[in-house]
Amino acid sequence: MNVEVSLRPVREDDLTFLNDLSNDPAASGTYQWNGWHDPHVYRRRWAENGLLADDRGLLIVSAGADRVGLVSWRKILTPGESYCWNIGALLAPETRGRGYGTRAQRLLAEYLLAHTRVNRVEASTEIGNVAEQRALEKAGFTREGVLRGFGFRDGAWRDGVLYSLLRADLSETPSDER
């Protein structure tokens, strides 16, 4: 991958892109399509907090000057009054398979570990989503196990796979080696 991948906050002119990406079955793809949703949800959240809240957030993924997708995170409560972040990514169909998702998820994990006190960033995907599993592994995440009956999609319960990246994992694989 020769194009620099970066993350940035959502701007108002990104809202149509976000809605089109997440509210169209062809754009979302097999593993991300969960049915149509309120087409104004991003606009309302953007007006409220720019899609950056204390318990969740969303950033635009750029490859060079091109907008190629989004990454998001949400707070997951863990024992002992602590929490971790669960992250996800969604790329435009024409940009998939180029390494952008791998790089974007690594950048997001590094950002969250640098700017919050969490020790763990996790991600999950359907067991059949081999491309996402490869992307997470290339981004330095460790496969932890199978989550039986984890998510409901397309009329059936699907198994998932859970991955994590801990703060200590960052020192093992520098970002610039990815």
From TrEMBL:
The keyword Lipid metabolism does not apply. Keywords: Transferase. Residues 5-168 form the N-acetyltransferase domain. One of its GO terms (molecular function) is protein N-terminal-serine acetyltransferase activity. SUPFAM superfamilies: Acyl-CoA N-acyltransferases (Nat). InterPro entries: Acyl_CoA_acyltransferase, GNAT_dom, Ribosomal_N-acetyltransferase. The keyword Hydrolase does not apply. GO terms for cellular component: cytoplasm. It comes from the Bacteria. This is RimJ/RimL family protein N-acetyltransferase. It comes from Micromonospora polyrhachis. The lineage of its organism: Bacteria, Bacillati, Actinomycetota, Actinomycetes, Micromonosporales.
